[in-house]
Amino acid sequence: MDRDALADFLLVHRSALRPEDVGLSPGARRRTAGLRREEVAGLAVISTDYYTRLEQRRGPQPSVPVLGALARALRLTPDERDYLFRVAGHSAPDRGEVSDYVAPGLQRVLDRLTDTPALVIDPLGRTLVQNDLARALLGDVAGLRGWERSAVYRWFVHPGSERLRYPKEDRDRQSRAQVASLRAALGTAGPRSQAAELVRVLSARSEEFVRPWAAHEVARRFEDHKVLVHPEVGRVEVDCQALFTEDESQALLVLTAAPRSEAEGKLRLLAVLGTQTLVS
Q1: Which of 44, 151, 263, 269 sits a CA distance of 20 to 30 A from 85?
Q2: What domains sit in the chain, N to C, each tagged with a CATH number?
Q3: E strand or H helix at 33, and its extent?
């Protein structure tokens, strides 16, 4: 681990960003250029003290998840992210595998979407980052780890909770769509990928998964229109648009309601409620 190179790199990239670059309000007059240390720490979901020690060349070696979070917070390009990993004493991530890294272009677009649900996902259905309205509508997945972060895993292994977000009449179609999407990811990534490992895990843990998997359907899961069910506001009809990275390894999903519709009103209510529960 090269503490000097790591500290200098973090400082330079923190100083190069403005609050509006990462979806924050500029706020009061600033004494220094760029983001504050506490803002970077907040974006990376680490303590300010921990981040400060990294910049002051006295922190411990950052873990791979922490480095991934810092790469997202600082909006690093893939080459910059790889450099960050190496100076911190880790191998650069395999760009052919899914990871927690979010493409800067998608992240910048997401930062500007504050009035409609939006999230970035990878080919295994893992939510990499979501805005406040997406958390309110779809649930907060930030605390999930391992395969639990994959929507297709939760769909088949924990159907009681995951499927409540969809109407009963749509759940069979959603099951087929989840499996078809995973097969598309496997076809791209190959037999030694995390997609293949997820298939093995699901085959062992869910008999329900095995049946549609044997049908060999292949398709992406981004239908144009969907109905979601929220525990507080009920059914919400939204249109789904997907914006892919050039290599199609990540997608920004934006969910919009028709103007002046009942669903638009429900999304406004969710913007106020957040993840709170209404008390009757």
Answers
A1: 151
A2: 3-87 (1.10.260.40), 104-273 (3.30.450.180)
A3: none
pLDDT for 1: 86
Radius of gyration of the chain, Cα coordinates, nearest whole angstrom: 20
Measured over the CA atoms of residue 24, residue 28, residue 29 and residue 35, the dihedral's sign is: negative
Give the Cα separation of 177 and 220 in Å (integer). Answer: 7
Question: What mean pLDDT is predicted for residues 112-120?
Answer: 92
CA distance 16 to 77: 14
Are the C-beta atoms of 114 and 132 separated by less than 8 Å? yes
Instruction: For residue 228, count CB atoms less than 10 angstroms from its CB and return exposed for 0-12, middle for 13-18, buried for 19 or more.
Output: buried
Compare 279 and 95 and report the one with higher pLDDT. 95
Q: Inform me whether the pLDDT recorded for 31 exceeds 90.
A: no
The answer to whether residue 161 scores a pLDDT higher than 50 is yes
Q: What mean pLDDT is predicted for residues 114-119? A: 93
| Torsional class of 88: left (φ above 0), alpha (ψ -120 to 50), beta (otherwise) | alpha
